[in-house]
Write a structure and sequence with these properties.
Length: 342
């Protein structure tokens, strides 16, 4: 069975094995590092491209551990290979050390290019190749020589400014214990990244989607038509005053509230206090909140002041900016296990 590695958003190592098994049936997880999953898969490689929570996916040709995880030693070992997996077109060689591209020895790289060409009959193209061979080394003293199979499908250029990436929206949803009886709310829906993942991949009874902006609500309404999902309500609504939602009626709130960097909100700490006051009102006593914010200190203080305890706190990156993902419940409630395997 072939072995692969795939990269994913930092911070979600605990959650990724169960997510990968759901999105890629038949996967056998071998190990998980921060932002990197190592696994076996017997299916067709094209199936890996469908797992949108993966950023880059690679076919592992050789694994290295301990002192062998040095580029000169790795290159020397690969030079001795007698066969490589089938490839076509053109290629180039890249070196990644702790998630950063670095240069390799030019002469050794040229010799290895010739070796790969002779084994695969592919040509070298250092500018715009069909595929790439990577030497990838992590600080955990593990390294891989691997061939790139799939790159991240959606880049920031394909998103609206401020729109949450689909894989991050999915992972937020996966942290909530959703089932077919749940009433779910996203009160800061924006461009609809979170609601879209819910209607595509998760069970619910009714989904409430809202935003303060009339423009955003009109956009969300157009997306709702494309989702063709039942029991979804889109409405213009102030998240700080949701009078139309009954008290203690919601099972889950999953959202990406404003961070106060790009919006004129005044005192962000005061904004979060008002937000939690209203969320405390509409949430059932056993309900859960999952949210994302880069204003970690202000959010944590406001959550505690609003009677919520932090059951899970994941540090991640959003467009290069440090942010936190939080699972919150009312004080005294039992933490929900994040889909851990038995």
């Amino acid at each position: 069975m072939a072995e692969y590695i795939s990269t994913f958003p930092t911070g979600f190592s605990e959650l990724l094995p169960s997510v990968a098994k759901k999105l890629l049936p038949g996967i056998q997880v071998l190990s998980v590092l921060d932002g990197l999953l190592y696994y076996r898969f017997s299916g067709e490689e094209k199936e890996l491209r469908k797992v949108f929570v993966f950023h880059n996916s690679f076919r592992v040709i050789r694994k290295f551990t301990g002192p062998a995880c040095e580029f000169p030693k790795m290159v020397h070992a690969v030079q001795k290979l007698k066969i490589l997996p089938t490839a076509t077109g053109s290629f180039r060689i890249r070196y990644s050390l702790n998630n950063q591209f670095v240069g390799g020895n030019k002469n050794e790289t040229r010799r290895l290019e010739a070796k790969i060409s002779s084994l695969t009959h592919c040509r070298v193209d250092r500018v715009n190749p069909d595929t790439e061979y990577w030497f990838l080394v992590r600080r955990e003293q593990v390294g891989y020589f691997c061939r790139l199979l799939a790159k991240r499908q959606i880049t920031e250029k394909g998103l609206h400014q401020g729109e949450l990436r689909p894989e991050l929206a999915y992972l937020l949803c996966a942290m909530a214990p959703l089932d077919s009886s749940c009433l779910v709310l996203d009160p800061f829906a924006g461009y609809g990244a979170i609601p879209e993942q819910i209607v595509k991949h998760f069970p619910y009874k009714r989904l409430y989607v809202s935003d303060l902006s009339r423009e955003m609500v009109d956009y969300l309404s157009s997306r709702q038509a494309a989702w063709k999902a039942p029991h979804v309500t889109v409405k213009q609504r102030d998240a700080l005053n949701m009078a139309d939602i009954s008290s203690h009626s919601l099972d889950a709130v999953i959202t990406d509230p404003p961070w106060g960097y790009y919006e004129e909100l005044g005192d962000i700490a005061a904004f979060y206090r008002r937000m939690f006051s209203e969320l405390e009102r509409v949430l059932k006593p056993e309900g859960v909140i999952v949210l994302l914010s880069a204003r970690k200190s202000e959010l944590e203080t406001a959550a505690h002041a609003g009677g919520f305890s932090i059951k899970k706190n994941i540090s991640t990156l959003v467009n290069g900016k440090k942010a936190g993902v939080y699972v919150l419940r009312r004080e005294g409630k039992i933490e929900h296990p994040l889909h851990k395997e038995a």
